[in-house]
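Kindly inspect both lines:
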Amino acid sequence: MPIGFNSGELGQHSGVDRPELRSAIHTMPKAGAPSLSGCGTNWRMPQLPSCTGLAKTAGVSVSGMTTAAASSNEEQAKYWSEEGGLSWVRDQQLFDLMLSPFNTQLRQRLNLQSGERVLEIGCGFGTTALDLAQSGAAVHGVDISPPMIERAQERAREVHVDATFLVADAQEDPLGGPYDAAFSRFGVMFFADPVRAFRNIASSMRPNGRLAFVCWQPLERNPWINAAVTVLSDLLEDPPPPAAGDAPGPFAFADPDRTSALLAEAGWVNIMFDSYDVPIRMGGENGIAGAVEQSLSSSVARKLLALGTPALRDRAAEILHEQFSGQATDGVVYSTGATWIFTADC
């Protein structure tokens, strides 16, 4: 299937400084064997339905939802309804401090106007939604985690802004609308069936609606989480192989080519992505000890810790404390967060 290629916008939108991508974006894909490698590129697949025609097929993937996908979705719901969601609520201030740089980026990409209706997917405890609502937008946030939605609702009542929050699965449930824009700060990588999810989101949009989201680049480019994974893998006698690149989880959208293709299959157009790297403050106000605790509390690290004894965590904590002490400045630990920021239109 030939893919339209618009290189005229590369200078305006591309933030990537990776030679392999710089070379790829100057290569016209061959008809019948398209390559989606590129950055800041405007992709179009006109034979797919636009968002305005997706209401009839919302929630229906090309092949239907498989048993494995349904099981994965249930696992995500269980995790975020229990320890996953509760831990994020406990560490709200830590995550707000760590992820705040991305709020400005999303605001700039959306270019929201006062009074516009906005959907946040995977809103967590509402930080980004409340930030946008204070600028005049009417924001509705959905998340699969009851503990985080409860906290978001509490915060909305405290600040009296036009923001509502609801426990909902953006892949399966009606999302209301119509919305002028939709966005997500690290909330779209956990779908069992991403095409189904993005079609469902598209069905809630007005014509010409905008989408913006930020997701992580590969694990190895994110030492804020990879440091603990490396240490634990080295300590385990028989560490498991890395998770599949397309498995639901923090790094499911690390491959921008695959993510672009998923969005296009779901009917989105004008798909573009930029690289955005930012220093991430680890551990909040708790310095090196907090950075160690945060590093060992990620979902990826927890899976590795479950394979060992309590001594595994103790030894890993010692090693990480030594590593972070060497890179701390005045007791504050910064690491690198490498992300993709995607935008698309209906």
